[in-house]
């Protein structure tokens, strides 16, 4: 019985160290900034992420599918977004779509080029000023949340904790 106490203390201290390290881990938004992207590429409410810094492969997680409109575009983020990140380039994206005319088309790449972000759907691309992405859109209402119900809008697509 005397040996269990030191083992328990060792396991507990190991758990505490891992917990402390995980709290020091940068957020998904901070990781975007490390790779020269604005935080507004991801909506509010990312619950976690995985990143292999050697290969750039990443996954970002939301509680549920997230939809919102920005200007004339309807966007949809699946609950899991995957791809490869490198400085100024997000490639092999999966889980982000845009409604063009009547078709949902996958955004497959985002490139930071000077003061613009280039969004590619494979056969076509569109450029937008990087300043448009300085804040994170919110599921359900995008950047217009403060205009709805005095800012107390509750998204039907995702409930944030």
TrEMBL record:
InterPro entries: At5g01610-like (IPR036758), DUF538 (IPR007493)
Keywords, in A-Z order: Signal
Membrane is among the record's keywords: no
The keyword Signal appears for this protein: yes
Signal peptide coordinates: 1-22
Superkingdom classification of source: Eukaryota
Protein name according to UniProt: Uncharacterized protein
Native source species: Dovyalis caffra
């Amino acid at each position: 019985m005397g040996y269990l106490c030191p083992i328990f203390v060792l396991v507990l201290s190991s758990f505490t160290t891992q917990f402390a390290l995980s709290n020091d881990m940068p957020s998904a938004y901070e990781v975007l900034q490390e790779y020269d992207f604005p935080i507004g590429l991801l909506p509010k409410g990312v619950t976690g992420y995985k990143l292999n810094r050697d290969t750039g492969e990443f996954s970002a997680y939301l509680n549920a599918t997230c939809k919102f409109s920005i200007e004339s575009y309807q966007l949809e983020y699946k609950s899991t977004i995957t791809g490869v990140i490198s400085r100024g380039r997000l490639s092999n994206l999966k889980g982000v779509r845009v409604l063009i005319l009547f078709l949902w088309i996958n955004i497959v790449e985002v490139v930071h080029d000077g003061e613009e972000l280039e969004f590619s759907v494979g056969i076509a691309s569109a450029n937008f000023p990087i300043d448009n992405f300085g804040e994170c859109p919110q599921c359900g209402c995008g950047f217009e949340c403060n205009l709805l119900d005095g800012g107390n809008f509750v998204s039907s697509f995702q409930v944030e904790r």
